[in-house]
Amino acid sequence: MAEPGVEKKKRVVIIGGGVGGSLLCKTLQKHRDFDFTLIDPKEYFEITWARLRSMVEPSFAKRSVINHHEYLQGASIITSDANGIEDAEVSTTEGRLISYDYLVIATGHMGSKCVTRTEKLREYEADNEKIKSSESILIIGGGPTGVELAGEIAVDFPTKKVKLVHKGSRLLEFIDEKASKKVLDWLTIKKVEVILGQSVDLTSRSDDNTYKTSDGETIMADCHFKCTSDPIASSWLKDSILKDSLTDSGRLMVDANLRVKGFDNIFAIGDITDIAELKQGYLAQKHALVVAKNLVVLINGGNEGNMVKYTPASPMAIVSLGRKEAVAQISCVTMIGRIPGMLKSKDLFVGKTRKLLGLKA
Q1: How many domains are there within the chain?
Q2: Do residues 245 and 293 both lie within one domain?
Q3: DSSP 156
Q4: Are residues 184 and 154 in the same domain?
Q5: How far is CA 107 from CA 18, 35, 126, 142, 298, in A?
Q6: Do 129 and 208 fall into the same domain?
Q7: DSSP one-letter string for 308-322
Q8: Are strands 333-337 and 325-330 parallel, antiparallel or unpaired?
Q9: Are residues 188 and 157 part of one domain?
Q10: Are residues 140 and 258 both part of a single domain?
Q11: By residue range, what is the domain housing residue 153?
């Protein structure tokens, strides 16, 4: 209860402790003018672009899977799913009601079912054991996740027979055709068999480890990894006050200040937004910093005209190809090999991300 004559601090609630939500919380923790609460279904933040390296090297995950309390010491953190939003309250699946003056939605995509860091680390150990014990491996999906996993396995386990099946006409369809072709050639040199224009029906898997593709082709593999996109984590919003702010694809419409359209005190960041740009982790971090500045302006009673506007980013992508190489597309320039690999592949920006959270690199 606030003391007489002392104005009660404004309450900020952040839903989602992923790439954007974690950095937003860390940034807000520096300000004493308001209180914030993080609501997240898991106890940890994961540097998502390090996942594929963690599958071939489980010890790598010890730096990239971080308990929220490690970088948010003393913060209010609720481990639960949010399942409803009203005008000034968020409800959780465990029956709690959390009041807010300002709200930020940062739920991104549906993710892992692991709740604790220990569970997540064990999951990577299990994935690694599955890779090591298999002679043949099927990867389903030729986006950045599938391509990076194929690259990690091909480099660390060159004797494994790896097949990658992608329903699109080319790999990495979000970058230009020249870059896609270079990646296909790189994988082919590494003896990864790539099958394009087909999908795999996982329900068709038989006891003798055979899979059927959409064209009726039979694939033999000791194990498989599904590397297609997870759904946007927004279905729970369809019965909330934000239901009319969702696009048909389940993303939240935001204005230039990253406020959800139709609301002055609700923001959205990261993959859940309808911003016309590639959905990438470093852009979610940029969203977080913009929203942090705008919250400070609003909470300190500043003029809304002083709020920061977010400018959608120009296309840029770096996809790792094992530990030393990568493919990069920056505007219209495409590179593949050791030079772009020096930018990302060795450490996958893990040290840089840890520094942003105030942790040792």
Answers
A1: 2
A2: yes
A3: H
A4: yes
A5: 7, 20, 26, 24, 23
A6: yes
A7: PPP-PPPPEEEEEET
A8: antiparallel
A9: yes
A10: no
A11: 117-229+316-350
Q: What is the CA radius of gyration of the chain?
A: 22
pTM for the complete prediction?
A: 0.93
Contact 177, 183 (CB under 8 A): no
Q: What is the pLDDT along the chain (361 residues), one digit of tens a residue?
A: 445 555 688 999 999 999 999 999 999 998 888 899 999 999 999 999 999 999 999 999 999 999 999 999 999 999 999 999 999 999 999 999 999 999 999 999 998 899 999 999 999 999 999 999 999 999 999 999 999 999 999 999 999 999 999 999 999 998 889 999 999 999 999 999 999 999 998 887 877 789 999 999 999 999 999 999 899 999 999 999 999 999 999 999 999 999 999 999 999 999 999 999 989 999 999 999 999 999 999 999 889 999 999 999 887 889 999 999 999 988 788 999 999 999 899 999 999 999 999 999 8
Output the six-digit token pair for 352.
Answer: 């840089």
CB atoms near residue 259 (< 10 Å)? 22
Q: In 3D, which of 16, 108, 24 has the Cα closest to residue 289? A: 24
In a domain, 54, yes or no: no
Cα 59 from Cα 209, distance rounded (Å): 29
Specify the DSSP element, H or E, that contains 77. strand 76-79
